[in-house]
Amino acid sequence: MTTPVAAAAGAPASKTSSRPDFAWDDPLLLDDQLSEDERMVRDAARDYCQEQLLPRVREAFRNEVFHREIMNEMGALGFLGSTIGEEYGGAGVNHVCYGLIAREVERVDSGYRSAMSVQSSLVMHPIHAYGSEEQRRKYLPKLASGEWVGCFGLTEPDHGSDPGGMKTRAVKVDGGYTLNGAKMWITNSPIADVFVVWAKTEDGVIRGFVLEKGMKGLSAPKIEGKFSLRASITGEIVMDGVFVPDENLLPNVKGLSGPFGCLNKARYGISWGALGAAEACWHAARQYTLDRKQFGRPLAANQLIQKKLADMQTEITIGLQACLRLGRLIDEGRGAPEAISLCKRNSCGKALDIARTARDMHGGNGVSDEYNVIRHVMNLEAVNTYEGTHDVHALILGRAQTGLQAFTGA
């Protein structure tokens, strides 16, 4: 007898089949959910990252050096502004591809992914989305190729999670604006050619401006002594009476919606990237505990170790499925900012926990950069904080659920 459910589903007759295979490193077969083009992009990114970035990262991190030529290499591969159309120098790929690239880059190092994300999401995106056609033609092709490096100035010495309180001011003068103020913790700023800076005008409205290296009164000193993201370069942006011509004002956005739109693009990439770093730590911990023998057997033969590996596998697998779904929603125009906050918060928090656990599973060797996991731990401490802290994203999600904001006491 055919039941109504079976009839509606067109279910075939049951038959005995062999037990499905289980891929320990891809339990829900994420790879099968990608298109052929998406897999090609992922594979190209993986090859470059493993063959070109990985051999450089240990010395770069030790010496706090960012190799400028990496931007040219990424540009040649289409990594910079990858979702922007080919008419402006981008690769024109979808957001799933962008996420897959971020995952592979951060599998090597969060600093490298940060440099790429800033260029793509925080510099090229606002010029593309909020700029004039003249600005797009002038800046985007050279940013896409890596000939120019860009940075994004929103965070200030006294204003991080509260960007609306910024003190940087833009005063209207004949032919343009005069900018005064300072921005802090700015990835790429010491080597930047292009600066997307957000400032308040005299009427209190936040506007975006494109500044260029060499403008009088503009400087970008390097921040020394970081213990995180050491393979990327971070600095300040200091503006002392910088004249910015009218044509460098981003004309198509006003208010915090501008910088927040950029941050959401970056947070999406971080969601994928942080899990790439987590995967590197998970795989390293698995291999180390298989190879390392104590009391006459591999560490991996212990229940505690297997439980930790299972936890890593579970969180990464579920997190990647969420990122993939989010990418599809963004490509469909349905990716809500709150959904991006959910994934950014989940990926970064879980990745940091996984990295710390992997470091512990390496025992004393875990503090040596020969094993890479300590580098990921140090990086992910910053990744969990920037582009919206773990708790700030919780407040975004709390507001979405309750209709009540808890950012201030008002």
Automatic annotation (TrEMBL):
Residues 151-242 form the Acyl-CoA oxidase/dehydrogenase middle domain. It is an enzyme of class 1 (oxidoreductase). Its cofactor is FAD. Pathway: Amino-acid metabolism; lysine degradation; Amino-acid metabolism; tryptophan metabolism. Its EC number is 1.3.8.6. It comes from the Bacteria. Coiled coil: none annotated. GO terms for biological process: fatty acid beta-oxidation using acyl-CoA dehydrogenase; fatty-acyl-CoA biosynthetic process. Residues 35-147 form the Acyl-CoA dehydrogenase/oxidase N-terminal domain. One of its GO terms (molecular function) is glutaryl-CoA dehydrogenase activity. It catalyses: glutaryl-CoA + oxidized [electron-transfer flavoprotein] + 2 H(+) = (2E)-butenoyl-CoA + reduced [electron-transfer flavoprotein] + CO2. Residues 261-400 form the Acyl-CoA dehydrogenase/oxidase C-terminal domain. It holds the Pfam family Acyl-CoA_dh_N. SUPFAM superfamilies: Acyl-CoA dehydrogenase C-terminal domain-like (SSF47203), Acyl-CoA dehydrogenase NM domain-like (SSF56645). CDD domains: GCD. Keywords: FAD, Flavoprotein, Oxidoreductase, Transit peptide. Belongs to the acyl-CoA dehydrogenase family. This is glutaryl-CoA dehydrogenase (ETF). The lineage of its organism: Bacteria, Pseudomonadati, Pseudomonadota, Alphaproteobacteria, Rhodospirillales.
